[in-house]
Amino acid sequence: MRLATKVVGVGLLGLATLLFSRAGAAPDDQAGRAARAEELALARCGLCHSTDLITQQRLDRPRWQATVGKMVRWGAELSEEEAALLVELLAARFHQAAPASVTLSAIGAAEPLQAEHLSMQERPSGVAPPGAALFANNCQACHGSGAGGGVGPKLAGNPILHLDTAFGKIVLYGRGRMPAWEHTLSRQDIADIQAWLKTL
């Protein structure tokens, strides 16, 4: 009876508990770490390429560590702690024996990183039609016609579009080769561009 109770309890802890089984860690902490790691994958990795490139891979921990290290050298903005957390997720979820159905699921969750956030008053609702013209005049040169990619990453269908805070911060303050647009585009302009990109 006691054994059956334990088995049921393990099942109820869910995937996050299985992913991050550090001794002494509470289930809520493990779920939070899993969600934060997924957000990192979406906001940092998904900025430059489709997350399909991640979820199709089946690598062991050393190869995931080497891959994340290479991305950091190529400009991915990850602290040592963030990179380690991302490797922890990837090695646990996308290992060589993982089924093909395993994927990322945190799209739309709140940006977990400690950083300056835009307040709700600073995040107006976007309007798609003016966003198309704003994109053509300011973004198309790097991100390509139809946001299909070029010097900058493909934005059409990019998971970053579902992370309002992360998207707004990148456009306003820049990241890597992306320049800051805070003196050129208003927050309404950015919201309109984002709204249009979501229609693609």
- Provide a count of the helices: 9
Task: Give the class from helix and strand content and strand pairing.
Answer: mainly alpha
CATH level-3 fold name of the largest domain: Cytochrome Bc1 Complex, Chain D, domain 2
- CATH class group of the largest domain: Mainly Alpha
Largest sheet: none
Number of beta strands: 0
Q: Quote the average pLDDT.
A: 76
Portion of residues in beta strands equals: under 5%
Q: How much helicity do the residues have?
A: 40-55%
Second rung of CATH, namely the architecture of the largest domain: Orthogonal Bundle
Total number of domains: 2
What is the molecular shape?
elongated
**Cα separation of the termini:** 54 Å
What low-confidence regions span 5 or more consecutive residues with pLDDT below 50? 3-27, 106-121
Instruction: Evaluate the radius of gyration.
Output: 19 Å
CATH superfamily of the largest domain: Cytochrome c-like domain
Elements, N to C (H/E): HHHHHHHHH
Provide the descriptors you would attach to this structure in a database record.
0% strand, Cytochrome Bc1 Complex, Chain D, domain 2, 200 residues
Please provide a written account of the structure.
The protein has 200 residues and is mostly helical. It folds into two domains: 2-93, Cytochrome Bc1 Complex, Chain D, domain 2; 120-197, Cytochrome Bc1 Complex, Chain D, domain 2, CATH 1.10.760.10. The chain has helices at residues 2-19, 27-45, 52-55, 61-73, 80-93, 128-138, 140-143, 164-173, 187-197. The longest helix is centred in the N-terminal third of the chain and has 19 residues, at 27-45. The radius of gyration is 19 Å and the shape is elongated.
